[in-house]
Amino acid sequence: MPGTTGIFIWATTVTNFLEDDLKVQFHILRSREEGDDIEGIDNLFSLYTTVIRASFGQISKSEVQEIIFVVGAMIFAKQPLSDNVPVMLSGVKIGNSDIMSLIQKDLISITDSGPILCFYHCSFEDFLLSGFFLQELPRFFAVQDQDYHEHQLTMLCLKTLVSFKLHFNICNLESLTTKNVDIQPTVKFIISPLISYSSLF
User: Fold this and answer.
1) 40-57 per-position pLDDT tens digit
2) 0.85 exceeded by pTM
3) Residue-range domain boundaries for the chain
4) Pick from 107, 22, 14: which is nearest to 59 by CA?
């Protein structure tokens, strides 16, 4: 059991991990190598390593690259993205919702549920950006390339801003001087999260 640092998120992650397939996942946790001197946050990072190895141990090189593109965007986006945005990144095969399904299913113990793609706890981002991560999971090293992921996000935003999706009077308002009209439902329905993100950042 870890020390007090990260103990609650450690327990939560284990619980979520076991929900997927109790017998198989429990065997993975029991058989993982663990030094006697691992305490606190190192133990939590060791658990995260186990989750990723169990989830992505048998995937192809191209799938590794796509996971890197998506996870990198999750880390370096200015705010959490809706789950249909990362499939539009240039490094992800067009319309490849399978990679999102893979991430959401296999990382269910450390990603939040719902339409917004984000990690359950900030400690997982800390893990992804740590030297521990590079040492234990070197084939995912490009996750930490901030310049590259910010460039990918910038290009996606620019493509969105010059597309037909963004145009004058996008919400079809009859008059800008109309008073006592709640336009928020219309805005939320018509303006996609990607358009909002691109316009803001």
Assistant:
1) 456 777 878 888 888 787
2) no
3) 7-145, 160-200
4) 107
